[in-house]
Amino acid sequence: MFAPPTPKPGATSLDPLSLVRQASGVVLVVLALLAVASFAVWVIWFLKSMQLRRLQAAQDRFERDAAGVAEASALVALGIQHKAAPGGRVVVEMAKRPRSNLTAEFLMSVAKRAIVSEQQRAGVLMPTLSSIASAAPFIGLFGTVWGIMDAFLKIGAEGSATLPVVAPAIGEALIATAVGLVAAIPATIGYNYIDQRISDLLAALEASSETWVEILASDAAERRSQSSLPGSVSQRPTHQPQVRG
Fold first, then answer.
1. What residues have CB less than 8 Å from 108, skipping those under 6 apart?
2. Which of 186, 183, 185 is nearest to 36 (CA)?
């Protein structure tokens, strides 16, 4: 049996929590700010993941129901039924326009504006996540620089540059940079992941909107052709869902 090696006198292990507890002054404020930012990153990541999962599920249901629709009235009815889906809101927004003189170009411009609104809706809190990802390392670096300046002041006050004098202050300083990276790295990964999911959702929405524009534009063109015939009525005898703003 071999006895475990005895630690050398004065040997210490790295203890980040101890360094954080020993921090004071500006470094402590920086660490508290970075801790709040790190917590906010995970909260935003969770909220955005739930939001995008809900939007994607609603969009999938709308796409599935609208796949076999060829009439404008049925498409608008589905849009009203699936107003929780981005595609449903786009269709409803197009259906709010008067149907007598609609063209495909005009409907596409309306659809693009509605898609921009969906992009803004899906992008809520993304600027905050991006700001944390870019600013957290510099905030941590500021705490490190301040802590090192404090270490030099202690050296001047003590009149000695021995390790027992400077090591605690330098340790407090460097932990600020480490905590800044702890906040920035998940923020960067979360931003890229969520931004890609938003881009995929909007790309699919934009592609599907072209089909919806064609259905609504064809219906408007048919109405115009029927109204131009001698003795014809201005509108087809169909029941059109009423869409209100």
1. 209, 210, 213
2. 183
